[in-house]
Amino acid sequence: MFRAEYKVEGGKLIKVQVSKRGEKIDFVRITGDFFMHPEELIEDLEKALVGCPLDEKVIAEAIRCFVRDKGVVLLGVSPEDFARCIIRAVSHSG
Amino acid sequence: MVEKWRLLDTGLNDAFYNMALDEAIAIARSRNIVPNTIRFFRWEPSAVSIGYFQSMEEEVDIEACRRLGIDYVRRRTGGGAVYHDRDGELTYSIVVSEDHPLVSRDFQKTYENLCSGLIKGLRLLGVPAEFRPINDIVVGGRKISGNAQTRGMNVVHQHGTILRDVNPTIMFTVLKVPSEKIRDKMIKSVEERVTSINRYLGREVSFEELRGALISGFEEAFGIELIPGKVEDFEERLAISLKREKYSTREWNFRR
Q: How far is residue B215 from each of residues B5, B6, B49, B92, B96, measured CA to CA in Å?
């Protein structure tokens, strides 16, 4: 399991745990002090990212799609911040 | 006719009941059983609450909590981990119908609108408080109140803290710090970034005085009259069952 933390400038702290299979996300858990509405969709978002290639732009786009399709509101974080933190986790740990 | 809201003061309760009652009030409001409501409450024993998306194990030193008799609970709202001191903090919640003019589609704007009541109340006490996005109230750049909001079932629920007094040492005993070496540094940094009403005013402000000022602040800022009321039987029963089946369970508190 790879881990990383990312402090959004002037915003919130994101922490992720991620495991990979090949170059794809096998599991991801996103925690932190941000706001996301409706809250209970966080687990659906994590599931939606399973199988996503470990590419920052592709992950950010997948999160943007999820946010748009489900009418999710993020406060203090952006899809790009989540994606950056996930990539940081897998790249720091080799 | 000035708009009338219900005022509740539920005094000291444990963390699980406190969080359960907030949800029960939101559900009761969504079913139109109760009017828009402002509730004041405190914590006994002192407690730590974490945001909806946080990990209990990552944020809270469970062993230290057990040793000190401090409860720990996950909130239904996002945001960060908070230490709620029995004698230092007054907590409030606002439950308001989503169609009220104070509620905007924009979450950020709604924080600002709902925080205006607290800001007005603090100013009445002589504390020149200001809103700081996303969800804080500050005085002289130092945080004095943190707030968190959720919405659902056509109701907005915002709750938050007002620091009457602050104790960063206990705070960093129960909240996890990256390493022991930086604990002292973090305590110092909190002393620089956070303040309290007592510290700012240089005198002891009682809970009664603080609550009185905040009630006037909400009434003036929202253009409402707060009518002291009681927790309805529906809310009490629901709170007891939400405490038992949700907020006091390991499944909820350790789900992330």
A: 11, 11, 25, 11, 16
